[in-house]
Every structure is written in structure tokens, then in C-alpha cells.
Amino acid sequence: MNISKTVKRAISVMAVLVCMFSLAACGNMGEKTENLEFPKFKGTDFEGNAVDETIFSENKVTVVNFWFNECSACVDEMKELDKLNQELKEKGGEVVGINVDAFSDKEKLENAKKLLKEQDATFRNILISEGEDAKEYISNIIAFPTTILIDAKGNIIGTPIQGNIDHEKNRKKIEDAVDEICRKEAE
Fold first, then answer.
1. How far apart are CA 31 and CA 177, in angstroms?
2. Contact present, 40 and 131 (Cβ < 8 Å)
3. Does the N-terminal peptide bond of residue 160 adopt cis geometry, omega within 30 degrees of 0?
4. Cα(136)–Cα(32) distance, rounded to whole angstroms?
5. Between 10 and 154, where is the model more confident?
6. pLDDT tens digits for 113-129?
7. Is residue 141 a contact partner of residue 66, using CB atoms and an 8 Å limit?
8. Could you tell me whether strands 50-52 and 42-45 are parallel, antiparallel, or unpaired per DSSP bridges?
């Protein structure tokens, strides 16, 4: 067997494994996963304002999107995330981006800001600088972009959505879960 066939087989096997994991991880966004609380953290938003886990209490629901600068799929969905943020504001929610690689590098932070500006994305983005459990949670994210929903109590709702939210199925999961959270909040 030549090298190119071996490489092609390895890539095929990896693709199948990634697809299998993605299918297993993308369960029903409308159900809680054991009342899991997002870990406590401290950091700043991209304007330098201090933030911590209490930002979730400001909203009925917060859609948290994990991304990094070199992720083209992450950058490609920014306009859609901004649109979703405008829709969520009307329901008492917000989109918050967490850039996973810019917190320790000023150049990466400036590049992240530039990417957001180029995409006309104005939703809040934060950098987590303190909180070992939060950093560990983020380090376990294996696919980007990944999006989670957090209620006003700081609980993660449902399971992570891997992939772009502009994919119709992913957008529908988010919209349905947001509507369910807002409905329960109103009760």
C-alpha cells in the first residue's frame, strides 16, 4: 500500500470518528444536563471592562459561542451570531463570544477585534483570564465553533452545539431552546 492510500484511509477514519462524536454530542438543547453550572471565572470584555460569571444573571438566556481567530467557520458565522444577538435582546437574552486563544496575547486580541469589525459583529466578546475550572472546561472543547446556552442562574442548558449556527438544524435547536427557557422564566 502506498503512502497516499494510507493517508486517505487515516483521514477517512478520523472523519468518521469526528462525525460520530458530533452526533453523540449534539443532543436535545431543550433539556438540562444535570443542572451543570458554568464554572466561575474572571476576565474582561474586548473593551477592557471586568466581567465574571454574573454576566449570565443579566439575561434570561445567554448563548455562549466559543471561537478562535484562525477558525474560518467561526468567523463565517459572526454575522449570523450578531443577527441572533439582536433577536435575543428582544426576548431578554444575549449572545456572548468567548475567544479561546486571545486572552494571553495582545496581537491575537487585536486580530480578534479586527475580525469582528470586518464582519460587522457587535455582540459582546470576552476573554477569561482567571478560573481554573472555566479554563479546563474551555480546553475540553474539541470542535469550533461550539455554542452552549446558559440560563440566568448560570446553568448550562442542553448539550453543546458543534458547528455553525447558520446551519438550519443548529439554528433551530438554539431558537427552540431559547423559546423554552424564556417560557419557563415567564412561568
1. 8
2. yes
3. no
4. 21
5. 154
6. 999 999 999 999 999 99
7. yes
8. antiparallel
Going edge to edge, which strands form the sheet with 42-45?
32-37, 155-162, 146-151, 61-67, 93-99, 124-130, 42-45, 50-52
DSSP 8-state assignment for residue 54: G
Between 16 and 52, residue with greater pLDDT: 52
Q: Which residues contact 65 (CB under 8 A, 6 or more apart)?
A: 74, 77, 81, 95, 96, 97, 98, 145, 146, 147, 165
Average pLDDT of the chain to the nearest whole number:
82
Please report where in the chains the cell 486517505 appears, as a residue.
8
**Cα 79-80-82 angle, rounded to 5 deg:** 65
Closest alpha carbon to 167 in 59, 61, 84, 60: 84
Q: Which three cell numbers stand for residue 165?
A: 449556527
DSSP secondary-structure letter at 131? -
| d(C-alpha 41, C-alpha 81), whole Å | 23
What's the first-to-final CA gap in the chain, in angstroms? 64
What is the DSSP-derived secondary structure letter of residue 129? Answer: E
Q: Do residues 46 and 126 lie in contact, with contact meaning Cβ atoms separated by under 8 Å?
A: yes
The CA distance from 129 to 123, in Å, is 20
List pLDDT tens digits, range 19-50.
Answer: 333 333 333 333 344 468 999 999 999 999 99
Q: Which residue has the cell 472543547?
A: 141
Strands 155-162 and 146-151: antiparallel
